[in-house]
Amino acid sequence: MQAFDTQNPPFDRLTQKEAADLRAAVDIGYYAPGETILALGQPATHLHIVLKGSVEARDGETVDAVLGAKESFDARAVVHGTSGEDYIAAEETLCYLVPKDTVLDLIKRNTGFAAYFYEELSRKLSDYSRRQETEGVEQVLRARVREARLQPAVWIDAGKTVKDAGETMAAENNNALFVRDGARVGVITGMNLSKAVVLQGKALDARVREVCSFDVIAVDADDFIFEALIKMTRFKKRRLAVTSEGEYIGMLEDIGILGLVAGNSQLIPGRIDRAHTIEQLEEPARDIQNQVERLERQGVKIDVITEITSDLNRGLFAKLFELIAPPSIRKAGCLMVMGSEGRGEQTVRTDQDNGLLLAEAVPEAELAQFRRDFNGALEKFGFPPCPGNVMVSNPQWSQPVDEFVRQVRGWILTPDENSAMNLGIFFDAVTVAGRDDLLVRAKGEVVTMMRGETGYLARFARAIDLFEDASAGMLTTLMASVGAASDAIHLKKSGIFPIVHGVRTMAIEQGLLEPSTAKRIAALGRKGILSEELTRDLTSALTYLMETRLRTQLKAMKTGRSEEEAIVRLSELSTRDRDLLRDTLKVVKRFREIVRNRYHLNMF
Amino acid sequence: MPNFFTRTIDRLVISDPSFRFLFHRQDTDEAISIDCETTGFDPWVDDIVSVAAIPIVGKRILTSEAYRAVIRPNADLRAESIKVHQLRRQDVEHGREMADVLPELLRFIGNRPLVGYWIDFDVRMLNKHVLKMLNVRLPNDQIDVCTLYHERKYGNAPPGTQIDLRYAAIMDDLKLPPLVGHDPFNDALGAAEMFVILREMKARGERIKRIRDADDVVDVMTG
């Protein structure tokens, strides 16, 4: 049947012959509103792909998902035999029916198709187990020891002194060492050392073999985590030696297991703190990025994800500053992050906006070196360079504060096309290291100059219409729904930017120094600048947009299509998400109108 | 549609008794959605160039069991219809003789009711050949989706209501994704989709709203 769309994933991976076989096998089923298409526990004879209408996936009374045209269900049932949920037609629905045997046959023949199919399946499964918390924990217990974060094995000879052991621990940043004593193997921990010296009064030149423990409890790297946990409990140990093919390869600490459950965000600050070189920062820097996806998968709320991530990033920046800034800059400098990083709204790294204010001039050579090193290191950590060149490496953004303030005045008084953006980015700055008083002073200048100056404010506010045509809005979506226009919506241009910029303008007007958009909205609400209703609507619109954006970013990262990082396609949304997006864009439109009126933008 | 008397007589005068199954009483919930593409719209002059038939069993449309055939027409394939169907003379020349196709098609259809958009036209085109072959007309019940649609939407309309029964309008109104037209399989499929939906709406006593959703109108106006 030629009407079946094999351009739609995962069917786009089929060869022409396979697609033809699939089409030849497809039937169509009709389902009345409220009719159960596939019941929980029922074996599936077909894979359903919605042709028209919508289908609710239900777990008892709660609706877990609403599937719209082109979405398919239930992969799990086709592969595993029975359905994990009830699928009920929410409205009048037609579904393509692909016989189970055809699907299984295609999975066998086409690995690309199979991969997508199983990926989809495992996503569904993990969603499913997320809902059933006990199962989620069980999943962790069934992970392998090697998947947890292990401390590397560091060896010390049993003939060395307690003092040597302490020094090795400090140098290696490892609290437990393996002890080699001829054929015997032992373990010595920081706790052993303290007990020996403090409680038993041993001398610092006592031998390691006198204080270490030779009863080593080990697990194999391929053992399950639950086996390790049982051993820890039974032998009252917080650490286990880990072996692989008979060799000791490292230590498993209880906290390493925690990392499997909750991500390892709580471990990153310690690793940043302990770093002595830029190279040692690379791993925690990478982990900051990795935990974003893990947190999202675990269903952590977007505002918590952004808070954790920006805290960690700021810690990373501060440490980097400490490592590479020469004393002159450390003394006189204020390292700031700006833009989304300053507002604490960046999750997936899209760019870096940072700058340096100096209380006084520093030696030119040192400054030049710092500019190079700082942005070089960030790039190595995976922060893409800022396309607008708002970076320490750009002298415009790293200079003595007096010069900088003069520059800011210029942006306000004699603006060019970049001035509004520069001002906006700067107004969102926060200090991550060094002298905060410099930033407070520079920002104070902006507020003093612009408050009450409706002309300046209006010029600044005008940027809200920058991407106006990106959200021609509902008409476009209507046209897209009949195939007359692209159905792509740019979340950042049509949604996030207008909110952020409008709120930022009002924050300058009111002299609010709070950098986060959500908190600015709340403060404007308290002052009565925004109505109670709009405060509520804007907050949820922003949350929804950022959540959706994070999902599109993660998806773009996975598919390697970075140009899609802020794009949602209506055809790929469920009916429920489409409704939410529509409501959200209506709020944005309403807010844009309010900003326009407030600053008389319609007169330009 | 043949009435009781024609049917009774036809049943007796059929020239090939092995096709008498066409007259058997219908007691299943099956139907056949059928569509013919023709060289034009005049049954006296024009002829069938291709045909597709899709079984409907209960609430399933069995596209996997569809019947389709390309036929070499007797009448001249007119330039106009070439444009409409994108079938060139040489394509049609690969077609089969109606004399070979028709027995197959009739066995496929059996005694099941025929569903289609403006089904009367398709049946008249087919009857030219059925008459020649069997000396009778197709006795099958005929269900026109236009009629079903009209009844669901305009059945209680005040006089003067503008009535739109175009194929595309019905597809759109029932929110069915558009199909590439002028292909007998797609047209039969569209009619089959309309049929199951309209039949079930009728069973539920549900009508089709005559004005579009107020929400849609607001959307258009607020841009």
Question: Can you put this structure into words, describing what you see?
Answer:
The complex is a heterodimer of chains A (604) and B (223). In chain A, 52% of the residues lie in helices and 16% in strands. The longest helix of chain A has 28 residues, at 532-559. Chain A has a 4-stranded antiparallel sheet with strand order 1-8-3-6. A 4-stranded antiparallel sheet of chain A has the order 2-7-4-5, with no helix packed on it. Chain A is α+β, with helices and mostly antiparallel strands and 604 residues long. Chain B has one domain (4-211): Nucleotidyltransferase, domain 5, CATH 3.30.420. In chain B, strands 1, 2, 3, 4, 5 and 6 form a 6-stranded mixed sheet that branches. Chain B is globular, with a radius of gyration of 19 Å. The N and C termini of chain B lie far apart (49 Å). The A-B interface holds A 1-3, 24-32, 51-53, 69, 92, 94, 97, 472-475, 477-478, 483 and B 59-64, 66, 174-180, 183, 185-186, 189, 192-193, 196-197, 200-201, 204, 216, 219-220, 222-223.
Q: What shape does the CA trace of chain B take?
A: globular
Query: Beta fraction of the residues of chain B?
Result: 5-15%
Number of helices of chain A: 25
Question: What do we call the CATH topology of the largest domain in chain A?
Answer: Beta Polymerase, domain 2
Write the CATH homologous superfamily of chain B.
Answer: Ribonuclease H-like superfamily/Ribonuclease H
Q: Compute the average pLDDT of chain B.
A: 83
> What is the CATH domain class of chain B?
Alpha Beta
- CATH architecture grouping of chain B: 2-Layer Sandwich
Radius of gyration of chain A: 29 Å
Major sheet size, sense and barrel closure of chain A: 4 strands, antiparallel
Number of helices of chain B: 9
Strand order in space, largest sheet of chain A: 1-8-3-6
Pair with the biggest interface: A-B, 26 and 30 residues
CATH superfamily label of the largest domain in chain A: Beta Polymerase, domain 2
CATH top level assignment of the largest domain in chain A: Alpha Beta
Order of helices and strands of chain B: HEEEEHHHEHEHHHH
Mean pLDDT of chain A: 83
